[in-house]
Amino acid sequence: MVETSLRDGNQSLWAALGVDSARTLTVAPLMAAAGFRAIDFTTSTHMGVAVRYKQEDPWQRIRLMAQACPDVPLQFLSTGFRFISWETATPDFMALAYKTLVTNGMRRFALADPMNDVAGNLAGARMAKAGGADQVIAALVFTVSPIHDDAHFAQCARELAASADVDALYIKDPGGLLSAERARTLIPAVQAVIAGKPLELHSHCTIGQADTCYLAATELGVDALQCASGAAGDGTSNPPIERVIANLKALGHTVDVDEEAVARIARYFDDLAQAEDLPRGMPQAFDAAYYRHQLPGGMVGTMRRHLSEQRLSQVEGQVIEEIGRVREELGWPIVMTPFAQMVLTQAVMNVTGAERYGVIPDEVVRYALGKFGRPNVPIAPHVMDRIMASPRAKELAAETGMADLATLRQRLGAQLSDEEFLLRATMPAEQVAAMREAADLHYDPTKSGAMNLLRDLLERSDVETIAIAREGFRLELS
After folding, report:
1. Does the pTM exceed 0.90?
2. Which domain covers residue 19, as residue numbers?
3. Percent of the chain beyond pLDDT 90?
4. Shortest CA distance to 1 belongs to which of 249, 281, 337?
5. Cα–Cα distances in Å, from 48 out to 12, 23, 43, 45?
6. Fewer beta carbons below 10 Å: N end or C end of the chain?
């Protein structure tokens, strides 16, 4: 099992804002003891959120979690050649980012290119390994379209598995689109070409298919399932680990984790959601219409809010239909960040504007210019012509992107540590300054009396409940 609450559960249900450093380190001893294959811990997006909204040092968070969980690899999710900002980074910048992440305690890197760009993933794998990564797991980002058949994914898998820099692969299903029926053809097709390298599965409960898909995948011999815990699971998040374990055991499987620690982790996230008034993930009903737009759950809410604010709620159905048309015309991009935002924005503008593609967002122009990689199939000619004739196309084509590493160093200050340099190169200076001015979180898991007390309590069989209380707040772990 790979535990995903701190990264994907937090992001899917709580906009990456629900778990700060203190809450992370509170649950760390339990996660260290549960026997997980890995902990899906952070992304550059989460690191940016830590600075922007929590005024916390994300590097410190990584270091302290790595110290608290020395025997469990922490996983960093990388989505293409970017770090924190969506601006395409240079190879030397990404190499520094991977090296610095390893230096601070990240050991396992999941590479999920939004285009399933094999060359990009292999370049990232080489950089991560050169930077000292223990494990690189390359993603096959799943979607449903006329071109994303089993042969497409098998060819990607074959090329990825041939690299010595790729230790394992995983099917990443951000929309929860993979059914048990499709899994029974897709997984064998991938397994047949990866030369025995491990294969994991990561899906979401968005339309209620992930649980049965996980059971089918287990029967087919996948090596690990990625799950969240308690209130951080279900909904648009990953399958709840306790439910997955119970179903697997009912079907005669064994699961090599400490179930008591797993149960305590689930209760921790339940109590956290209740105490902080965070939404709890709930089981979702199957929704066949979801296949038409494939928007992540959070973006459906964003779309409805936007249309309501504009007093255009009545066109929601038209926007849903338009998303499918736009996606086809743009070459079937996978509906995950940043392409989900692009497709949705263009669809809304097409429906609410005077004419289709009368207004074209800059990010769609950048996509057409190849700044996010090569589309799976060419953009429809009439749409490409319209995009290239837009007033912004020439200006955006002239963009040079991120400066090279030496220029950035000179501009920002050669004296900066690698950690601070990477933040200042990708975030507004005032946000980084505010983070540095905020009180540091002083925490040493090897010396902290509170953490040692918690470890001692967890080892005792005569303690049924641990209560933490202050005025107006009470948290019980039982």
Report:
1. no
2. 2-276
3. 75
4. 249
5. 16, 18, 9, 5
6. C
